[in-house]
From TrEMBL:
InterPro entries: Peptidase_S1_PA, Peptidase_S1_PA_chymotrypsin, TYSND1/DEG15
Protein name, per record: Peroxisomal leader peptide-processing protease
Enzymatic class: hydrolase
Originating organism: Holothuria leucospilota
Cell compartments where the protein resides: Peroxisome
One GO biological process term: regulation of fatty acid beta-oxidation
Family stated for the protein in its record: Belongs to the peptidase S1B family.
Lineage: superkingdom: Eukaryota
Pfam families (alphabetical): Trypsin_2 (PF13365)
The EC number(s) this enzyme carries: 3.4.21.-
Chief localization: other
GO CC terms, sorted: peroxisome
Length: 560
């Protein structure tokens, strides 16, 4: 169950900044001059709020925030409004309140900027604004034409975008927001594992309609952590424009209190203009450390805040199955593989991941130690034929692995069911050079597609992307392997890839052949995976049985 925002007090607000009319030229007076986003109320009694520095991008340039701006250096041209929800005594209906505010300081988190530039490279097609081009206005709505979140300023580069994403601001509300000082626990990101559940409290679309949207909840899991002291947190929680500055909490486990882990810095990410369904947050401890280091006086402002360091609690040992999924590289391409036998050093993957090894005799490498970037050679034991719609392969490590310790294999489930909660575990989006560990997204088994009583395909709602091929679908309840990720869906008409509609090979279809192979070492048992059935082929291609007047589908399967 999601944590109640009442249980953790007044945590979220909306901040709106508008240029004062006297500072506008005649042309500017006709333009939208309002920006808004979410804020994390770190001290409700004294009105202190942490938020995104990008909120002030109309008042400052990216160059301005390379050095911290103190309270006396911040511009006075912006009119700041704060909106928040107050729970009234003896009333079940919260009241929306508002007041003015003042900017106390703006600073950059340099560790965050460095980490973001290392993994979200513009040359790889990454952006945080989709296909918004320089000179285009973002969509506007509402009576004041408020920008829906922190938008890109005309002429700014990808480098400048990351500069703004890495900046933060401290704002003080002019009124008391709550009668009690805040008491938060924070969780050091060193204790976070991919797969850890998270909750985000923010306000989609900022000041568009705070009476309806303020302090909204969305949930998901930690997808990955990276950077010095795990500064960067990736999550599959569905955040929207305007939630920049929203607080990210760990979901409470076993009656524990929710713990603050970070602030949202980029609610939406795009790669080659395709939405990938991930949000980016910065570690709260990194934000506070960078603020105290650059704006020393803020320690006096925040002396009533009590952050207690907590510890993580996990119902499922996520790191066990994370170690069972490895990055598989063939030439310049990569995918994922799942360890199913430590004794035989066997991994399952997809045929198309190792196709170049089969057809062009390229070598297969498996990363066996991420921290030291150590790789081991592998050979293809079996791969289904190109005519088979079951895109399946088995590979085996061949050399020099023993000194790195035992392989951790994942147990295999005999079956699954529609609605079963899942983790999708693999190496999507980020290449081997980033040295990221396995990424995790969450979802459910949407449908078990059967043919003649046998499960032949799983549809899931997990976020799945290129690089996930050969990765593991893991049951959230048992920790067992329920499938191998193979394909996702693309709408060719609109040139859009759909990450949350994807298809996997059910574990039930390869469990018995794999066991027989492990017992006998006879590859003939694996050849039953070569399924050449037109009906199964039509299912994997999302094609109905051809009929007169049948219109070809616009959606086609694409490889990951």
């Amino acid at each position: 169950m999601p944590p109640s925002s009442r249980g953790i007090g007044c945590v979220s607000c909306v901040l709106q900044v508008k240029l004062k009319p006297k500072n506008l030229s005649e042309d500017e007076d006709q333009l939208d001059t309002t920006q808004s986003c979410s804020g994390f109320v770190i001290d409700a009694k004294n009105g202190f709020i942490l938020t995104s520095g990008g909120l002030f991008s109309q008042l400052l340039s990216a160059a301005d925030i390379q050095l911290p701006l103190t309270e006396h250096q911040t511009p006075e041209e912006g009119d700041i409004q704060v909106f928040w929800e107050q729970v009234m005594p003896h009333s079940a209906t919260p009241k929306l309140r508002s007041c003015g505010g003042r900017l106390l300081g703006v600073w950059s988190c340099y560790n965050l900027a460095e980490s973001l530039r290392n993994i979200f490279k513009g040359s790889d097609g990454w952006s945080f604004q989709g296909d918004l081009q320089d000179g285009e206005e973002s969509d506007t709505s509402g009576s004041e034409g408020s920008r829906l979140g922190v938008s890109k300023t005309k002429g700014e580069s990808h480098y400048d975008d990351i500069t703004w994403l890495s900046s933060f601001a401290l704002v003080k509300a002019d009124e008391v927001m709550c009668g009690e000082s805040s008491r938060f626990e924070f969780l050091a990101t060193a204790e976070l594992y991919p797969g850890s559940p998270v909750a985000v409290f923010g306000t989609p679309f900022g000041s568009l309609c705070p009476s309806a949207l303020v302090n909204s909840y969305t949930g998901g899991v930690v997808t990955n952590v990276t950077g010095k002291r795990n500064t960067v947190i990736l999550t599959d929680a569905r955040c929207l424009p305007g939630t920049e500055g929203a607080a990210v909490f760990s979901e409470p486990q076993q009656n524990r209190k929710p713990q603050v882990i970070g602030l949202v810095v980029a609610p939406m990410c795009f790669k080659t203009n395709q939405w990938v369904g991930l949000s980016v947050a910065c570690s709260i401890s990194e934000i506070l450390q960078s603020m105290y280091a650059q704006l020393h006086y803020t320690k006096d402002y925040l002396n009533e805040i009590r952050f207690q360091e907590g510890s993580a609690g996990h119902t499922l040992e996520c790191h066990n199955f994370l170690d069972s999924v490895r990055l598989v590289k063939v030439g310049s391409s990569w995918g994922s593989g799942v360890i199913v036998s430590s004794k035989h050093k066997l991994l399952l993957t997809c045929r198309h991941v190792v196709r170049d090894a089969i057809t062009n005799n390229r070598s297969v490498s498996v990363r066996v130690d991420r921290k030291n970037n150590s790789w081991c050679r592998a050979k293809v034991i079996f791969a289904t034929s190109l005519e088979s719609m079951i895109d399946f392969a088995v590979i085996q490590l061949t050399n020099h692995y023993d000194h790195l310790g035992p392989l951790i294999e994942i147990p295999i489930a005999a079956n699954t069911y529609e609605g079963e909660p899942l983790f999708a575990v693999g190496f999507p989006l980020f290449g081997p050079e980033t040295c990221l560990g396995a990424s995790v997204t969450s979802g459910h088994v949407s449908k078990v597609i059967r043919y003649k009583g046998q499960a032949v395909m799983l549809q899931t709602s997990c976020g799945v992307h290129p690089g996930s091929s050969g990765g593991a679908l893991v049951s959230q309840t048992t920790g067992k392997l329920v499938g191998i990720m193979a394909n996702n869906c693309r709408d060719d008409t609109n040139k859009v890839t759909i990450p949350h509609l994807n298809f996997s090979i059910p574990a039930s279809i390869f469990l018995k052949p794999l066991r027989r192979y492990l017992h006998t070492n006879d590859v003939q048992y694996l050849k039953v995976m070569n399924i050449h059935d037109k009906a199964v082929e039509s299912l994997w291609k999302l094609q109905n049985t051809p009929t007169r007047g049948h219109k070809p589908p616009t959606k086609v399967i694409c490889k990951l």
